[in-house]
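INTERNAL AUDIT FORM
Audit reference: QA-55
Scope: verify that the stored structure record matches its stored sequence.
Auditor: D.O.
Record contents follow.
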Amino acid sequence: MEGSNNIKHIAMLPWLAMGHIIPYLHLAKRLSQKGLRVSFISTPQNITTILTKLLPPPAAAAAAIDFISIPFPPTDTDPHPLQIGAESSMEIKTSNQPLLKAAFQTLRQPVTEFLLESQPDFILYDFPCDWIPGVAADIGASSAYFSIFNASTLSFFGPPGAVRSSGSGGDHDDDEIQSVLKALTGKPDWIPFESNIGFHLHEIQRFLVNQGAPDSNEGERFQRSLSGGDFVAVKTSFEIESKWIDLLSKLYEKPVIPVGTLFPAAGDDGGEAWNGAAMAIKEWLDKQSVDSVLYVALGTEATLSEEEVTELAHGLEDSGVPFLWILRDPPESARTAREMLPEGFEERVKGRGMVYAEFAPQVGILRHRATRGFLTHCGWSSVIEGLGFGRVLVLLPMINDQGLVARLLEEEKLGVEIPRREQDGWSLARGEVEETVRMAMVAEEGAALRKKAKELKGIIGNEELNDRYVSDFIRHLQQSRKF
């Protein structure tokens, strides 16, 4: 094991979303490979998903991670605020996310009991876990918030004392609403350099329609999570976000430590496997020309409306580009994703296009020789995987921080966003989809974009560099150990 004997056992507690669980799992695997004992805490259904879809045997045994399954405690509420069996954000509608966050807080007591019993040396925790630093102090451990949000996104929201939301969700007059919109759509004063970072108006509107006004309690909890730990760890690297990492350290007035991109090592499919129904994807990709396919995947949380499915389908069809579309079934809905497709669509694109509505091995798809581009929702982990394999990015941000990630990528000329026009009610239009896809994938004007994506492969996909970030992170864990 690297380093001193101070740090032997690390506990990790991610938020209940695949976009958080997977990066935590990737870091857990790398820490375990360095000789550290890792206790990975989540609910039973999420642990089952990890062990069957993300880290199936024999990969689970090779990872040498202790998976700690802690169920939601019994509740007097009848029925339970979540549908039966729902333990992650991908299983519920976006509008029910606040219920999942409330349920997550009921894990505080059983998680605390586990930590008191297991006595880890260090605890890495996610944004809703503002109570972890106090527990860590009680057991003589150190702690840090590990952010799967990138440095530019965290910088946009400012220091822990800053409030960039509309408050408690109560009634607001027009002046207050306009002030909030201005703050969220423009660069804040604490960013000292030029940047186009900020939400687009339609992204804020989508959030408000889906989830309502932000909860001030959630914002305060996030601020306490930032303030309470010994430092903040971020899934990023200086090669991608140097100025943002430096700014974030100043804003937080504490160390901000990049853990690297956690890009899968050669031969590692990110814990995913070509098995079962997913073999149909590999067989289809094997038949396609090298460097020709657009991979389309919009994450595990956002749900496309039927209008968006229709416009995206027509745009892909009209582009003439080969595509593989991972189309997620809407949660808590009697309708399947395929039932939302335009009539006759799959038959018309047969051979050139494939629609798949199951959990798909993203790393394997992006690694495949046939894949050229990635139409992505701009989740940071997905972006890293796409660029790490040198895939040109077509950007379609949907929810949460994804709009801010899209602004960074366009600013750095690492992707091109599908426009949404104000005059069209910010809706998705098939013509814009077709034009953007063709520009990124085949047009001469997209050549520079494709070239830069290939260049990033040598940085993000550099295993020696990624390994060095993890080794440096472990050294910082040891140095920051206080007890």
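Auditor finding: record pair retrieved intact. The CA atoms of residues 128 and 218 lie 8 Å apart.
Action required: none
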